[in-house]
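Q: Here's a chain of 177 amino acids. Please give me its 3D structure as C-alpha cells.
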Amino acid sequence: RYGHSAVVLGKDVYLVGGYDDTSLDVFDTASLLWKTTENPSDIPEKIDSAAAIALKDRYVVLIGGFGFSLLRSCFIFDSLFNCWSKTAPSMIMNAGRVDHSAVVLDGKVVVHGGSGSTDRSTSIEFIKIQDLLEYAPLFFPLPPFYFNRILILGKDCGAITIQGNQNTSKRKRCDDE
C-alpha cells in the first residue's frame, strides 16, 4: 500500500485509500490488532495522495488527492455510523492537488502546497470546520441503537416521549438515492 493517508481517532489509526485502493483499515493501538470484524465502509471512489485530518474525535476527512483526476472535493467518514459523504460542489477547493498537507487551526482546516495540474502549488486554502461538517453523513431513519437513546422527556414539560423500536434499518451513505 502506498499513497494512502492516515489519521488517529481515539486509540485507533485509520488508513485510508492509496494507489488504486478504496479501502479503509482500522488499527487498534490498545490491542495492537487490526479491526477486521467491523468491516469499515470503503471510500466511494479510489483516492490516493490526499491529505487527511481527524475532526471531533469522530470524523476522518480526506481532502483533495487523485481519483480519476485531480480532486478539489472532500470526503467525510463518520466513524460512529460507518458512513461516507462528499462535500457539495459549493465547498470544493480552488484547485485540485495531490501530495499536499492539511492541519486544523482555530476552527479551520488549512490546506497547503502539493502539486496541481501543471506544477507545484504554493497556495494556501482555508476551510471552515463548521461549514465542512454540514456535509457530514446524515441518516434517515436513524439507526435503532442511536434512536433508542435520543431522548425520553418527562411528562411535566408536556413534551412527546420518543421510544425506539427494535426493527433494524439499513444504513445508507447520505448521497445514496
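Q: Can you summarize the key feature?
A: The CA atoms of residues 107 and 129 lie 6 Å apart.
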